[in-house]
């Protein structure tokens, strides 16, 4: 065991040792349950101080790769179930699955005309063409919340986040995110070996005081946030809060801000961005999945050239570019007056659905928030019992725990309010039963849950 570890280490810094051991675990050469050599044994074999190895072990522990059991020793952790997998899909068919977080297909624009117009061969390019259609780039720049130094198009918001993590984050880096946050992003950061730190989220955005404290204590390399229609809470950052956060972030010039504007044109909040204040340190991701169609698989990435150029160059070793045919469809959709009107109608419909469901829940004493977008974040006394109760009524919901970097002081469920087109009182009655039937002993009906999200 000891020769295996020391033989894999090329960089004898704490980060290098942690990265080497992490690779051994990932490839299965250090299997789950394997006991690791002592810190002193590894330090002696590598010729470094025990403090260096202890720091490497600490980074591996924070990343969930190893588990220290006191005097029993340190062991390789078993494979953790990704947060995204914990959201799950119902094992049986449900009458109403609200766990998905997807837009209502009935509210997406009709692509027929756009597909017909791009079928005339105009978009049949070559490997040497620009990766982004010039006309599309011009439209995107006009829509951008700040002037981006460089802009490109990738295969959806998650593709963008994946590539930005690859560019920005190294093993052992500290990264700030919202708490609660989007589970696939947390999975990706964990896979990169980052130490993920949650920043509390209020009804105007991130807490600037906590952010200031974390910047001083942790020296994070990046802050990932959703500027509007935050998933799962629906919170949107206000212009005043963006200015306050920017004042704090000016004291950390090493940190990059990554904004995931996943809701796009169906969000009712204006496109507020930290890039307005920090354009040289903000990368903004604009997705079109929820507004124009998930299967378009397109998102734009804009910001400082030093970062976006690395995304562009790395893609040359893989897909190279996103389909110009689909880019042509998106260009058509973004400039067609009928589609613009259709997306505006969808934005209004989602707002009406959120408001109607929130009002129905409020009349029943249920604590929930759904300020924007398509999701609703509901407080429950026990998420597992609440999900079982809902499933018995044919309703699926996503558990709140995978969204939480650290516990929020109470359990939650995320429901896709955007898929609820009617029957709000009937649904609210069932949701209330999941809250109060599973909450006996923690509060009478009508008082709500005492640990509601704030």
TrEMBL record:
InterPro entries: Aminotransferase_I/II_large, HTH_trans_reg/aminotransferase, PyrdxlP-dep_Trfase, PyrdxlP-dep_Trfase_major, Tscrpt_reg_HTH_GntR, WH-like_DNA-bd_sf, WH_DNA-bd_sf. Keywords: Aminotransferase, DNA-binding, Pyridoxal phosphate, Transcription, Transcription regulation, Transferase. SMART domains: HTH_GNTR (SM00345). GO terms for molecular function: DNA binding; DNA-binding transcription factor activity; pyridoxal phosphate binding; transaminase activity. Transmembrane segments: none annotated. Pfam families: Aminotran_1_2 (PF00155), GntR (PF00392). Coiled coil: none annotated. Residues 11-79 form the HTH gntR-type domain. In the C-terminal section; belongs to the class-I pyridoxal-phosphate-dependent aminotransferase family. This is DNA-binding transcriptional regulator, MocR family, contains an aminotransferase domain.
């Amino acid at each position: 065991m000891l020769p295996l570890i020391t033989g894999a280490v090329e960089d004898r810094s704490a980060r290098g040792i942690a990265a080497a051991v992490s690779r051994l675990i990932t490839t299965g050469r250090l299997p789950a349950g394997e006991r690791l050599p002592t810190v002193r044994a590894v330090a002696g074999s590598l010729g470094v101080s025990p403090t260096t190895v202890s720091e490497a072990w600490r980074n591996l522990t924070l990343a969930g790769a190893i588990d220290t059991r006191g005097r029993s020793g340190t062991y390789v952790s078993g494979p953790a179930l990704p947060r995204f997998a914990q959201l799950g899909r119902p094992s049986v068919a449900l009458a109403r699955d609200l766990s998905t977080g997807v837009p209502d297909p009935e509210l997406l624009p009709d692509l027929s005309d756009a597909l017909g117009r791009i079928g005339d061969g105009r978009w049949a390019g070559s490997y040497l063409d620009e990766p982004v259609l010039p006309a599309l780039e011009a439209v995107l720049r006009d829509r951008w919340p700040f002037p981006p130094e460089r802009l490109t198009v990738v295969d959806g918001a998650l593709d963008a986040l994946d590539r930005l993590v690859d560019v920005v984050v190294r093993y052992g880096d500290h990264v700030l995110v919202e708490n609660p946050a989007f589970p696939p992003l947390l999975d990706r950061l964990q896979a990169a070996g980052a130490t993920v730190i949650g920043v509390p989220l209020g009804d105007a955005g991130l807490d600037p005081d906590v952010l200031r404290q974390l910047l001083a204590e942790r020296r994070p390399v990046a802050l990932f946030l959703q500027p509007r229609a935050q998933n799962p809470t629906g919170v949107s950052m206000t212009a005043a809060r963006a200015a306050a956060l920017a004042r704090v972030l000016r004291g950390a010039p090493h940190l990059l801000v990554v904004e995931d504007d996943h809701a796009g044109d169906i969000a009712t909040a204006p496109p507020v961005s930290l890039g307005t204040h920090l354009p040289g340190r903000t990368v903004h991701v604009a997705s079109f999945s929820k507004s124009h169609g998930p299967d378009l698989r397109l998102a734009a990435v804009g910001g400082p050239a030093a970062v976006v150029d690395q995304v562009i160059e790395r893609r040359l070793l893989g897909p190279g570019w996103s389909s110009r045919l689909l880019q042509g469809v998106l260009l058509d959709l973004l400039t067609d007056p009928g589609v613009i009107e259709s997306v505006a109608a969808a934005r209004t419909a989602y707002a009406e659905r959120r408001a109607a469901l929130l009002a129905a829940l409020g009349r029943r004493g249920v604590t929930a928030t759904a300020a924007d977008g398509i999701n609703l974040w509901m407080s429950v006394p026990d998420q597992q019992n609440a999900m079982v109760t809902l499933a018995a009524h044919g309703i699926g919901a996503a558990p709140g725990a995978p969204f939480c970097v650290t516990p929020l002081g109470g359990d939650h469920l995320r429901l896709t309010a955007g898929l609820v087109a009617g029957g709000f009182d009937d649904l609210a009655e069932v949701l209330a039963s999941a809250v109060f039937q599973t909450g006996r002993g923690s509060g009478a009906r009508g008082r709500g849950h005492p640990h509601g999200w704030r």
